[in-house]
Amino acid sequence: MAGSEEKTEKPTPKRKKQARKDGQVPRTPELGGWLGLLVVSLAMGPLLDHELGALRTMMATSLRSAADPSISLALTLLGDAARHAFLTLLVLGSMMLVVGVVSALAQGGFYLSPKLVKPDPKKLDPIKGAKRLFGPHAAWEGVKVLGKSTVVGLLAWGAVKSMMPLVGGLLPIGVVLHQVTAEVSHLLLTVAVAGLVMAAADYAMMRRRIGKQLRMSHSEIKQEHKQSEGDPLVKGAIRARQLAAARNRMIADVATADVLLVNPTHVAVALRYDPEQGAPRVVARGAGAIAARIREVAAEERVPLVQDVPLARALYRHCQVGQEIPRELWAAVAQVLAFVLSRRHAGQHGGEHRTPRRTDELPEVLAHSRRRRAVEGA
């Protein structure tokens, strides 16, 4: 059974595409968060320096205006404070937006899976819920939480310990703020780098788990190939019907031919000549049983039958149905058509005849002179 067969084969492109539609994509939500923290840690120093300078300027202006306060000055100071806060939030928000887009693109791009939000009664299965709660995935999630807590706790303890000498009020406030800002920025940077390492490990684990879920068995690959390419038996039956239909149309076109060249029973080639379409064209050809059927229809429709072994073989070898005869055979065919048309003008139709040509030699048909299949309706 396909369900009990071991799945050891890599997923096919079709299986991967379907998995993407179903939301089975290796992705960790932590990558965007840790990248955002890294960007904030790098931008916090310059932003705080700029905003602290603006804050000192605003405080000095406020103190100078205390001697002569006014509503317009207060509104101006309030507007400056709001503008600085808005610009800071705009810069941080834009950074986080770019980080979110980059993290999504790095994990396979954006995708929308309606199947994930569609209600599924299978999700309420308590047995599967218990497996998810106590399975390998849950164990990995617990290891991640424990690891993140341990790393962040140790790094935070180291940063706080290094800032302890600053507590006591012996240093100027400007020095304290600058040192604290540097320590906090370094702490965030270190935590972000450690978080990115853990996010990479989580992504590798998710990729391994999804890859294992998408593995296929030999029977599944065969079934998929059969569905995409079609059942060989069905394709063979369709092809046989198409060939039969084409053969029936060809047999029906024998009635429109001007002459049938035979060899004498194995090969048959029916030609039709229309001065408006150029050289004579092959309307039917065949060998063996098909040639016998063409001869029968030609006899019923009173199409003249001319026995010309070399010419019939050459036409059968170098021409397809609907194709003009090669240039090298024009003269030989012209002799046969002149003979047939002269009998038609005399009121004589059908019958079996020997070739009017006096020689069996034919010029060699060159490959570049063979006509392409004529376009239907040309």
Automatic annotation (TrEMBL):
* UniProt biased composition (Basic residues): 368-378
Q: Where is the composition biased (Basic and acidic residues)?
A: 1-12, 350-361
Cited SUPFAM superfamilies: EscU C-terminal domain-like
Per the record, the GO terms for biological process are: protein secretion
Q: Which GO terms describe its cellular component?
A: plasma membrane
Q: State if Membrane is listed as a keyword.
A: yes
Offer one Pfam family short name for this entry.
Bac_export_2
Q: Which domain of life is it from?
A: Bacteria
Which keywords belong to this entry? Cell projection, Cilium, Flagellum, Membrane, Transmembrane, Transmembrane helix
What's the name of the protein?
Answer: Flagellar biosynthetic protein FlhB
